[in-house]
Amino acid sequence: MTNTLFEQAKPLLEQLEDHGYQAYYVGGCVRDYLMDRTIHDIDITTSATPDEVETLFDKTIPVGKEHGTINVVYHGENYEITTFRAEAEYTDHRRPSEVYFVRELYEDVKRRDFTMNALAMDTDYQLHDYFNGREDIHHKLIRTVGEAQERFDEDALRILRGLRFQAQLGFDIEQATYTAMEENCSSLEYLSVERVVVELRKLLSGDETPRGYRNMVDMQAFDYLPYFKSYDMNKMQVVEPLSFTTFLAILNVQQPLEMPLAHLKISNDEKKEVTKLVAMIQALPTITTKKQLRTYIYDYGSKEAKMWFQLQKSLSSNDIATASPLIFNMQTIEEIAQQLPIRQRNELAVTGKDLMSHTGLKGGKWVKYALRALELAVVNEQVINQQKALLEWMDQHVEIQ
Ligand code: ATP
Ligand code: MG
Prior knowledge:
Residues 170-229 form the tRNA nucleotidyltransferase/poly(A) polymerase RNA and SrmB- binding domain. Helix content is 47%, strand content 10%. It is of the alpha+beta class and 401 residues long. It has a 7-stranded mixed beta sheet with strand order 3-4-5-2-1-8-9. Strands 6-7 form a two-stranded antiparallel ribbon. Bound molecules: adenosine-5'-triphosphate and magnesium ion. The site of magnesium ion has 2 residues, from loops.
């Protein structure tokens, strides 16, 4: 059966073939096609060298030219065309000391990590399957190309890739592959934290995340990863897919070690998100009335509140206290979210300046305090959001010192 994405990329392969080169679809796109999964991007492998690829296409970007990859822009889409490549020995458990370009497909697929990822397919949808990848896909098995021990020793990232493919695809890990993964875990410490985090994000968001995560814990992989090695990951249960920030937040509520998130080199936005999520989890058990839920939703947002409602299994399996379902349930959250008179402070009908000119006092901590009291009063419908009413309410209820 043809596939639109392959058909769209076909003229690129034909262009290479018309000039005497071999060209194939390769890697994840072929695997996903055989599994009837959504294909994300088409990768092309060819016997043409990067220089030769550049001469054959109008719009090219030399993204990873020294490693053999040229990006070709075609009908507005970006395609990675990579020259058949073999690798010299690995000396640091994470990258080959040298790569060189070759003219045989076999050499190229031999260096790839798993049999399911070492499949190439031509424009007639004929598979070039040197390592029984199709059979392994059929049996739902993750198996290294070649000797497992050697392949994980070369590049420890493959251990995490194996686990995240398990989490995404729900495959079993073939026995020798699993044993070699376990035995090479200590090499994970050579990897850059950025590459580790990329794989972890994917592992945590798979349909079969609990399985991949359990195996990762069982092989004690976290002991060799920055940041996580400080935690007892055996205690941290993952029972459903989680975003990376949610995962970190649950972990830190369960084990409040205050390890700097900077060790993970994530963005400042994500760091802030984790801090917010930690506060949200910690505040859950304090919600015992509708009024408290209203404040909670105002402070953190209804989307986030709903998220924690849906993730209650993740909280309880990690022995984290949550809110009573009598108050904290989808219907009440929804209801409150729709009724909130204001959604954020700047919707308040007074500003700090208004408070200062009304009282004739200079700015200070009291302004922040008064604004907070006012916004809560509005949220809880004790006063309407109108300037005169707010100032009167402040005079009566807010003690200013
Ligand atoms: P995804 O669907 O997540 O993109 P993928 O299999 O396409 O999965 P990529 O990281 O995009 O994974 O890599 C493309 C291909 O490159 C893989 O299918 C595999 O053949 C090869 N590959 C990637 N990383 C490695 C590695 N560390 N060692 C050996 N081969 C690798
Ligand atoms: Mg890919």
